[in-house]
Amino acid sequence: MTFCIVGTDGSGRFGMAVSSSSPAVAARCVHLRDGVGAVSSQNITDPRLGTKLLDRLEAGDTARQALDSVVAETPDIDFRQLVVLDSRGDSAVHHGGRTLGTFGEGRGPSCVSAGNMLSDDGVLQAACDAFESSGGDLEVKLLAGLNGAVAAGGEAGPVHSAGLAVVSGHGWRDTDLRVDWHDDPVAELGRILDIWLPQRDAYVTRGLDPQLSEGYGVPGDDR
């Protein structure tokens, strides 16, 4: 019911884009941490596993070591699909024995993709290929990955939610966008990203040094 792409741009930014047939997928699946990496917990989702995996990465584990540790200690791991990208750019994926439908993974030099209930097992490599061939900000590359997956067939059924988030070392997600229910959530996510990206850095400035921030430019702002 879910496919995702997790990636980095090599500058310390990590991000993930995800889409699903179920509502509010990004609220459950996306797990990011500054300087540590990115994780997706999906299929029959347990969001707690995202935190556990990031904790292992922060303690010094590689993606594979973190995944192996969490898989070994999780009783119901057969229901889970997990995707891990560490600060080195290395990745690891777990597909539980009860992962739903057609599932698999794709990889590129700076990304990894995984999903379930797919229309075709080539969807995930298409996502990674689109990510790697796209230029621009990490957010743009992640959205390209989602669109590449959709163009290759996406899920077996309709998708209804999507999300995209990135961390850049500021202490919070400088991009965190969600479409929780929509007939075409990936297209809607792209529309919102077009609005957000030109303003992203200004909002970072407001958080880090409000004295340098620009006026809001809205009614009531008379500075």
Structure description:
This protein has helices spanning 25-29, 48-58, 63-73, 123-133, 138-151, 185-208; strands at residues 2-8, 14-20, 30-33, 37-43, 80-86, 91-95, 104-108, 111-115, 161-167, 173-179. With 223 residues, it is of the alpha+beta class. A 6-stranded antiparallel sheet has the order 7-8-1-2-9-10. α4 packs antiparallel against α5. It starts with a strand and ends in a 15-residue tail after the last helix.
Compute the average pLDDT.
Answer: 94
So how many helices? 6
Structural class: alpha+beta
Give start-end ranges of low-pLDDT stretches.
none
The biggest beta sheet, please? 6 strands, antiparallel
State the distance separating the first and last CA atoms: 48 Å
Shape: globular
For the CA atoms, what is the radius of gyration? 17 Å
Proportion of residues in helical segments: 25-40%
Number of strands: 10
Kindly report the spatial arrangement of strands forming the biggest sheet: 7-8-1-2-9-10
- In N-to-C order, the SSE pattern is EEHEEHHEEEEHHEEH
Strand percentage: 25-35%
